[in-house]
Specification:
The chain has about 140 residues and is of the alpha+beta class. Helix content is about 25%, strand content about 30%. A six-stranded antiparallel beta sheet has the order 2-3-1-4-6-5, with helices on both faces.
């Protein structure tokens, strides 16, 4: 990829271009290493208590996981640097001001914000407003 990562706060906010993905996801955890569920996950994280998974809702339901807290993912399209400072804080603050919970997951190229499915559109609007008001 020829694009360079953005590391300054204003640049990350100005370029975040949030995109709400259409799928619902569920956070789950397993302790059985032989479970087939990790192969279906879009992300995993090993914790002391077990392997945390982010699963598409249908896959979570098929494997018997609790699906009572569906989440939607908002991908921040900016190629944010791993050592960039302030994007996560700005996003979390903008959502907290609207009373919207968020769970941040950072990938190599982008940050992904998981919010309650029922508040996903409101979260997207809050992030678009942040981009316009503070990013430019």
């Amino acid at each position: 990829m020829g694009e360079n990562p953005v590391s300054d706060r204003q640049g990350m906010i100005a370029g975040m271009a949030p995109v709400l993905l259409p799928e619902d996801y569920v956070f789950a955890t397993i302790s059985d290493p032989a479970s087939p569920a990790p192969a279906l996950a879009i992300a995993t994280l090993r914790e002391a208590e077990g392997l945390s998974l982010i699963l598409p809702l249908a896959a979570a339901a098929a494997h018997g996981f609790d699906t009572s807290q569906p989440m939607r993912c908002i991908t921040l399209a900016v190629y944010s640097a791993l050592d960039g400072v302030g994007l996560t804080a700005a996003v979390a603050q903008a959502l907290a001001q609207q009373g919207i919970a968020c769970n941040m997951v950072a990938g190599f190229h982008h940050d992904h914000v998981f919010v309650p499915a029922a508040r996903a559109e409101a979260a997207l609007q809050a992030l678009l407003a942040l981009q316009v008001s503070r990013g430019v």
